[in-house]
Amino acid sequence: MDNKKQRYRFSEAPIWDMQRKYYEEEGLKAWNNDQVPQYITSNPMIATAYAEMIFGFLQDRANKEVSPEPVYIVELGAGAGRLAYHVLHELSQLRAYAGDTLPAFRYIMTDLAMNSIMAWKEHPALQSFIAEGLLDFARFDAVHDTALNLMVSEEVIREGDLKQPLVIVANYFFDNIPQELLYVENGQIHEADVTIEYPDHMESLKPSELLNQISMHYEHRRAAEYESEAYPYHSVISTYQDQAEASYLLFPVAGLTCLTRLNQLSQAGSLLITADKGEHLLDNLKFEEPPELIIHGRGCFSLTANYHAIRQVWEQGGALGLFPPQHYESINVGCIINTDTPMDYFQTRLAYRRFIERFGPDEFYSMKQWVDRNLDSMGLQQILSFWRLGGYDAEFFIQSTQQLSKLLEDATDDEMQDILRGIELMWSSYYEMEQRYDVALDAGLLLFEMEMYEESKRYLEISVQQDEDEIVPTVFYCLAISCFELHAIEEALHYLRELLKLEPDHEEALELIQQFESLS
């Protein structure tokens, strides 16, 4: 039937099933080339902030001299796996500085899509963490599941099994799972149902096409059950009745119940570290318009998260919520300490103050957007400083290689050594994704321009090994010159011959072969 119209409760609308199906079918491909945004919540800078908070939490647990059991860190919807890798990389370095004074920890990557989990298990960058027992995986349905079935250790974590508090990492999570939609008017709560009008021939459309072509309209119906004192989140609803007027409010029932189920896995509470497009200030929820779907990739969307409700619910139970005093621009990062005496966790609170409140991922991303627009006018020291601030991120390196190349002519030896050091640090913490760029290639070509032939040869050979079917002829030429400079004549001839297979009339290669053969 064409032009179908149907009315749904917002949390039960088919858009959520469409999103769920998209992630289950696409797996890691959903994040290829940023179809679904991942940089803002997965870059080394935000991972370092998370690692510092978790490190502070481990210090606080050590000060309590409690259970020798490990602290479990569960990431909800771990996506491409990049955040988990960077957190583990940084946390392992912090642990090395601290020695054996901290409790052990184990990171659990979870997702709804089993093919994502299987891809993580095989990812080269994660193998050392798996072997060390620091990393495990579990399929977890945030809407329904009550236990964690770990795939590597085959351990099952059920209610009350953990003696250490559970650390919960939720990045771009609450805005991707079903939410209720309420409308507040004259101190009364209404539920805002959504009427979806479908396009003609919807059966022939792909999910992304369908999401872009449906139209959504909202209709209110009185929902006095939310105002009942028996309603689990009555106190938050009362706040909205008193202070929110003519407002549409996304209400995170699914998110709150998920957190409750996870919190119940431990006898000692939990620590939530979360980042999202989400409001924690009540004033910013007033006079809100109906929500609009932000479409990503080929078939998914995001909304905003109601951090105000999550914070108020948990603080009423004795937790301590930490959110920035300033307004956020792109991403809001919060931390909720839900333990018996949350104020005792001063190392965790100090880490939040240093790495989120004073200058955090939101401020960094705002600067990154400015840098993206002005990179062509930046000097070498400015680029190196921002690269260092961002934890030697590979994506920024790829963006800046052209400008770095232009600036090499006037670079000092010290600056070129700093570029080399940055490349080495970047590569030591590089998490490969199916992207459109080749980090090793760009690193090798830049080092070749800097006449660092041994280092250039290393990265160019990595590039050749990674993509033998699409080798740029320039790579073989640079490898040949590097080998010549390193007095490896036979290797140089090998690469020249490989170059001539791709470009038989390459004049420089033909001349060099003649020169090399005359020397032999």
Automatic annotation (TrEMBL):
Keywords: Methyltransferase, TPR repeat, Transferase. One of its GO terms (molecular function) is methyltransferase activity. One of its GO terms (biological process) is methylation. InterPro entries: NDUFAF7, NDUFAF7_sf, SAM-dependent_MTases_sf, TPR-like_helical_dom_sf, TPR_rpt. The keyword Lipoprotein does not apply. TPR repeats lie at residues 473-506. PROSITE patterns: TPR (PS50005). This is Tetratricopeptide repeat protein. It comes from Paenibacillus albus. The lineage of its organism: Bacteria, Bacillati, Bacillota, Bacilli, Bacillales.
